[in-house]
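Morning. Coffee machine broken again, so started the prediction first thing and wrote up yesterday's gels while waiting. Chain of 172 residues, entered below exactly as on the submission form.
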Amino acid sequence: MILKLFALTCCLVGAASASASAEDGVCNDVGDAEHVAAIKSQRGFFNSGIRHLDIAAIASVLADDVILITGTDSDVYRGREAQLDIWRGDRENADRAIYVRTPGCIQASPIFPIAMEYGTWHGAPPSEPSNFAAGSYTAKWRLSEGTWLLEIETYMTERCGGSFCPNHEATP
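Came back before lunch.
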């Protein structure tokens, strides 16, 4: 019980610290440099998997019970297969949006095999870059059998262009 309270306190203090840094526009990598580099490499591999619709590459970065919370509607996708179905569905869409996550910083825990990633994301079809959505995200990673895997990603949509923007005439 004490360990759980300690972990919760560490997480809350870390989240408050990261939030304060984000307000200032500053986010610094924290923790073991090898872990930080490995997570950034995994993020690059994931982005490449999305760009090329390499389902095996995407799957290799996701934990079995990964959770994705979308940025606009807060839709929740639970589990690796649910998330892979999103990308499989893109195979039929020749003008699909390509989403890129860009880490601002990685903060690796000094006491547990976990890390938080804070960054920005941008999605647009290559043929129509003026149609886009973009914003901020957080991701939690866990080191499992020597590989960093995504456990949860949460997105917030903050910017849009063209057909990706809501119809403001329809809102009260």
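The helical segments are 2-23, 33-51, 55-61, 80-89. Going to sketch it on the whiteboard this afternoon.
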